[in-house]
Amino acid sequence: MSTHSEAIDRVDGATTKAFITVWFALLFMTGVEVLLAYEQIPVVIFLTALVGLSVIKAALIIAYFMHLKFEKLSLFLTLFPMLILCIILMLLIFMPDSNRLMMMRPR
Amino acid sequence: MTSVWSGGRSPYAVNSKKFGMWLFIISDALTFSALLMAYTYVRLATPNWPTPFHFSPSIIFSTVMTFCLLSSSLTMVMGVHAMNHGRRKAAVAWILATMVCGAAFVVLHLTEWLNLIHNEHVTPFDNPWGVPLFGGTFFALTGLHMTHVVIGLIYLGIIAFAVARGKFKAEDVEVSGLYWHFVDLVWMFIFPLVYLMSAKI
Predict the structure, then answer these.
(1) Which domains can be identified in chain B, with CATH numbers?
(2) pTM score, two decimals?
(3) What is the rounded average pLDDT of the residues A26-52?
């Protein structure tokens, strides 16, 4: 098999420069997360900041490294709304209850 | 006019292997979501939750482990890129670099586990702070993730071996890349929620 016939027939999504930029962005956000851990922030705000940054990092990995930004929209619509809905359902049903013990403690 | 959904064509414009891997990734993401959710629940609901992760070595180790996984994702995407352009030798080299980063992650993680077991006396069922759920949830979550990394290393090893011998196509490398990026993505949630949320200040 010649190497030429293996060449792709579709547009190759991102460039090397884009990959390296995304890699730097991910490293930067990881650094911010570590710095936040050593600031005195209330636990719920800290948790929200960490999850927010992690969601941005996950979105960058999925869009660029996993190439989803360059796939057809139908693939994204088939896979992700259901996943996000399930996660939101778990969050809404279980997470508020995790504070119950804190609320019950005498002030 | 026939619709793209009426058969005979791929409505997603991806091959079946890639679509299969995406479906696996979504189901695996739900597994990890449920575990992370359970961990965060007990973390918030337990007032005396232990904070055994000292800056040195635990936080330094886990930050370096994050660097290893992020870099391995970069080398993997470069491997897929090389293979898409028919450069098999370069693709093999990039995949091997990915495996080196992945192996470094496993070695660092095992060292960190041993540090926790020997110096902090944490086991899956007991710890000095009387919060057994800490060890249970910590080892279950990080253990399942490490299993994924080890399976990924074996998977990438097979792919690299086959590509070096002139077998497999670009799409096979791309599908293995999807799996590897997912393993990286899961760590992006485990590192802050498990390590940083329980860092010893």
Answers:
(1) 16-47+55-198 (1.20.120.80)
(2) 0.91
(3) 92
